[in-house]
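Below is the record:
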Amino acid sequence: MANRRVFDIIFKTKGTDKAQRDIGDVDNKIVDLASSAKKTATILASALAATTVAVGLKAVKTAGQFEMLKARLVGLTGSQKEANRLFKEFNDIASQTPFSVQEVIDAGATLQAFGLDAENLLTGIADLAAFMQVDIATAAQNFGRAMNAGAGA
């Protein structure tokens, strides 16, 4: 018979149980991380949705306020076309001053109530109010009173 040699290959398996436990621990940590990421994504999505709703509501509220301001201008001018033109003019003034559109429209309405030309006076009144550190409606009211008392005559 042929000479046959048998080789025994011996693997040392010391530590394989620990390696399997470590791999299991890593696997569990990956599952925990995925779960945490999913919870975080859910929370962020909810926060984003809430913020979007809040911004939407603010936009609707602002649009409603603009419509009320335009309606006020229609009452002052008697014409939708003239009110739209004045609204644009007052909006331009507000964009160049520290005052809001509502404040500028309030001041314009005050000047018109005194029988003054709000469109031509409002930029100067805005500058005066900013210089004097008062709100534009107060400056318009004081100017209107002064003009009606004869200071402008």
About this structure: The radius of gyration is 37 Å. The helical segments are 16-77, 80-95, 101-113, 118-132, 136-148.
